[in-house]
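S., here's the first fold you wanted:
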Amino acid sequence: MLKKKLNLAFFARSLRQVEKILKHIPANPDIFIHKMNDIYIPGFTWIEVVPREGNKKDALIYLKNYLQVGKVVCFGDNTNDIPMFEVADEGCAVENAVIELKNIATRIIPKNSENGVARYLQQIMNRLER
């Protein structure tokens, strides 16, 4: 059992660097290590080290129940968003998202550099105002 909560994210220039870093993190059943290619900086890899019980999926389930919301729409771009997409009512992947996320998304929206999330939210707000 972890005595302290930990949430660490960093990136490295190569898979070799990632593997060197991961050798220094001892095996622990209470943490989850997620590796993913950075979709904005080609050649870089992100590493997230988080408590196993703390993830986007569980946070989304908790908030949906706590706030008693009927529908949850989430946005994502990388593989760490997959669990969240699995429990959301609608999962919007930006156009520049990794293929694994786009394959399970309910909608593909314009990429981040084109303000895809903001544009989608504006469309929703416009529909609600009618």
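And the second, which I think is the more interesting of the pair:
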Amino acid sequence: MLITETLAEGSPWYNLLADPGWQTEILFPGTGVPVVGAAVELARPRRLVLLDGTWRKARKLLHLNPLLQRLPKVALPEGLQSRYRLRKAPQPGALSTLEAGVEALQRIEPATDFSPLLKPFEALIDGQIQAMGQARYQANYQRVAQKPT
């Protein structure tokens, strides 16, 4: 995990992401971006970059870093539903970074069940709802989003 706004050319992280020995992709939606999926016999190991932050911040990170702009983009399919019941998503299908990562992993390695990675996330959400009280949750969030089944 790297916490930064810019990648300086020649820095260790820059070199890591630019390493031609890896197939590095960035998970970021866009027009004409292919849906992430299982790779068919790659000659190089695969690396997936996820940007964490608000959509505005993620677009800024991409804009500030030419290296990230040059990475091949992959996206998630439309129509996914977030489990993050306390977040007002900017558009339908917007997932948290954790949810997006788990969904991408599931598509890259469909034989592996990655859903246990979401259990702490769901416990966090349930704890937040419990702390705010059911009445406040229902008044402010429940009409906005329903928990997926």
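Why I say that: Residues 12-142 form one domain. The mean pLDDT is 89.

Talk tomorrow,
H.
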